[in-house]
Amino acid sequence: MAGVVVIGAGQAAASLVARLRSKGFEGEITVIGDEPAVPYQRPPLSKAYLLGEMALDRLYLRPESYYAEQNITLKTGLRVDGIDRAAKTVLAGDQVIAYDELVLCTGSTPRRLPAAIGGDLDGVFEVRTLADVDAMAPRFSEGARVLIVGGGYIGLEAAAVACKLGLKVTLVEAADRILQRVASAQTSAYFRALHTKHGVDLREGTGLARLTGDGHVTAAELADGSRLEVDFVIVGVGILPASGLAEAAGIEVDNGIKVNALGQTSDPHIWAAGDCASFPQGGAQMRLESVGNAIDMGELVADNIMGSGAAYVAKPWFWSDQYDIKLQIAGLSTGYDRIVVRDAGDGALSHWYFTGETLLAIDAMNDSRAYMVGKRLIESGKSPAPEAVGDPATDLKALLKA
Q: Using CA atoms in the order 202, 207, 213, 218, what is the torsion angle rounded to 10 degrees?
């Protein structure tokens, strides 16, 4: 028996193989990752790890010894070149690896600035891998001038770290406001004020025209005609699902690798999980870019490889750490028409997203109680009265019993 082969060695892959073994799967398991490191956490890369508050070995999802102890073959630093579906083999360099079931946990890749506008200059970085962060870390010296392109969570987290380390930070966002794609105007305003208070030169509604420099980036020209002297640049303008391998193998792709409710692709012996996979939800294909989704999908696919037959039900949750603020998010805010602001005092604040009387999502800033209650309400399909949510005198836990 050739067993299970997993392409990709991130959170989804690590969760999947651990689940297989914990559920009693006795066949061969092989994990192939193109990075040299054992599977590790990505969220701390741009925060605790970059700040020097987390050692490399603490990034690892499990100690390297775990894989040998569990009889899991871990092939790191190996790039997969193709999939032969007819032969049920994976082609990686000079290796041909057979599989009975193949799982694609290929994750995502950052959008890069075009070379035509200076994206290939030295000193231009994305924040995605351990190697990315290790390469940029020496640039984080006090007084250095950094330009951050993109006002999403990655860009804002990078700005917070840079400020804490004493850099001069400028952040540009081409949209009208930071977090425009993922959060309400109220949440954007909260984080705009937070970053401005910490000294970030935050410019919204202004895109990057080009980066300039002789080999190394030294300046940035913005769409409004202004020019900035910079020492380095961090690009955080979104990610794309890594679906190229699947597409080349003739597997159906739709905003990522298309899977059914079980996690199977258009080839019943090939599965997908995590950032790279789009799954059915509400009559359409949805793709989530989060640790929670990677864990849940990885474990579901493991269960279904073993015959569980369970359908995936997404329970979205996210988080972001910026300065001394922990933002916790539950649910999906798409389609909201009303925001209820709840101020619990002592810096605890939450924004509740409703469509009509239906609760969709919550953003909680330093308010773990609101987050936990909101998450449970959303997952159970309960919607409290918006007026009760907004009243700080309301006992949130009582809303769970209503």
A: 0
